[in-house]
Fold each of these.
Amino acid sequence: MKHSTVIAIAIFIAVATGTARADTVTDWNQTAIEVMKVAKVTANPWSRTLAMMHVAMSDAVNSVQDRYTRYVATVPVLPGASAEAASAAAARQTLLQLFPNQKAFINDAYAASLKAIPEGLAKSQGIALGEQVATAVEADRFADGTQVSDTYRPVTSPGVWVPTTQPAFAEYARAKPWVLTSADQFRPGPPPQLSSILYARDYNETKNLGGLKSTRRTATQTEAVKFWTQANLGPAWQNAARQLSAAKGLGLAENARLFALLNMGVANTFINDWDAKFTYNHWRPVTAIRNGDMDGNDATERDPGWISLNDTPMHPEYPSQAAIGCGVAVGVLESVFGPKPALPFTATDVFDPNLKRQFNSIAVMDEEHRNVRIWGGIHFRTSLDVGYDMGKKIAAYMIDNSVKLVR
């Protein structure tokens, strides 16, 4: 791929997402998303990639500037090096290690990053430093237990799900989170009893609003469900962070910290959520509603032909990973930009830049982000509420225990 093509892609991304190029951190955030789009990577591998890259970039910047604490502090601080060169080199090495088949594109993006940095000792030291830091982060995450299959199959008994391969479940239960002490550190209590009033409330809300043929879901809600596919959920929070960063004019170290915290937190949502999901094995609405006569609750009427608007994910319902992700993202963003930062915001479809959704604030997007899981028929309200609370707790713990101000 020609160098001019890389620049054109970067400009296209910036226009499509409503942001201008800001610095090395936000540039590589967009580059990584483009790399993973081509590689068709989503979910846990997607979040793991961004976490590894942004942690390496944060550590690289702070191995020069020493503004914030580092995740892997084994490389000596080198104040005379170029922080921009170090962060670019760290990003490049991380992506090359994970996506070697896209070496040409990654290297061209790297050349574009280095072009504005003056030649000299600071640049060469920064490059070497960034590569050292990335190697340290790669080694730390080499056997983190998250490189496993995400595919599971339901069985006929209500509430019971079984992994396609048992080691996948076992590894996620033992997976190494970012900063947190364990995968079950913020495991919530169990979902509502099937015989409870709360469960009946959740059941009937999703049944009425989330069915393929629902007459109670509005056209606007249906449009929102169709926009918020798995491919758009994660990138929207990255876009929000870039826009807020540009509006506030964050510096390189501050941006490195922001995106490291955001992406470590999002990566943790899969680890913490899979632990909880397979602890409780709670059935999805499509199974629950088709078997409403088996739950012991007189307020849940069975509909044997009910189909959700969204395709139902092949893993347990409780709690909602999307909601945990919202909680983490909001928690991190509010810690940097203040409570409910009000910025007109455009979310753009990853594959079709003509598909957009406009929001007056991050809080409005956050609320819609969660509600579409009910309107799409794949979650219950309590799962969203519990998941969101988990996410806020994860964010708060990480903010208190990592990437902290040194001076």
Note: Residues 75 and 122 are 16 Å apart (CA to CA).
Amino acid sequence: MKFSKSVLASGALLVASIVAIAAQKPATVEAPYFEVDPFWPKPLPNHWVTGSTIGVSVDAQDNVWTIHRPNTVEANFKAADINVGDARGRDDEAQPGAAGPPATPSPSGPTPIGECCKVAPPVLVYDQAGSLVKSWGGPGAGYDWPDSNHGITVDHRGNVWLAGNGQKDTQVLKFDGAGKFLLQIGKHGVHNGSNDVDNFWQPTKIWEDADTGKYKRHWGAYGKKPSDEKMPAYNPKSTPSTQFNTVHCAIVSNDRFVYVCDRVNDRIQVFRTDGTFVREVVIDPNTYRSGSVWDMTFSRDPQQTYIYLANGVNEAIHVVLRSSLEVLTTFGDGGRQPGQFYGVHNLATDSKGNLYATETYSGARIQRFLYKGLRPVTKKEQGVVWPQKR
């Protein structure tokens, strides 16, 4: 069969056009997809309840560790911990003249004002089934327990690092997995400015990278020396701040980059481990008050392709492409139901890629989001990632 030159030329043009169109078509963007697990964790035993839940970590056995603030549990939620005669047991809604509880305990001992509930120990550990398998924590001999618990990290040896953000919390604590005290870095209540190499200042989260706790180095925004000078209030239209404003997390990737949550400045800053500044990106720049970058954790693939970012003002979790720091998609919303948030505060992943999120303030809980694999991004704002099957 013979073709004329014109037919061949037309065919060539047609093929070239198809190739050109294919080249112009944008590649499908994929991102990890999650569904909330409304049945995890299981109810706590002993009528226990939790306060502001401000730390989460996953150990090598995929146990999930949390820490909460017992002193934030409201009086009406801990009747079994309040005795008759305690001022906290007074009911402001009681009608005038109504009979009240006796002013003194009964001869048999203190009388609780009710049966539910009791405040759980600060450190709680759940297995993959959602059952509580361990609990401990609180003041003890030889160390200064934080005034305001903040952050928990289980290291590669199963030891547990804790911090706090109270006005006098200038220390970091290390325990073994059973709660035995091992090490304190910093002296409670002692702080000599942002360049103090012996004490911290309201440390919020620990990224464990050593055993001894010996000082190595520190730096501020853009890798420069920190300063204690007062900075202007955050304004997205102003020149970016030369100082951090509430460093709320620092995580280190497998390829040795340090990603810092500069929370109130609405930004991530990236460094090398020697403090060399690499780049920054602003997340939801019109977020004020407590800012948009509360915590971050990496996806569990070897390349750590994605970063999951907690935004506690906008009550959402952002899925960020680590290579570009672009937000690919976002899920969550404000509320009390599964998949909604009230102060989403900390994030961690397990070996299966599932994501765990704690909530501060009166959110006071942890939720699990089941990893469902990579899917094309069809919505920038997913809302509540409710299970597809019931």
Note: Helices lie at 5-24.
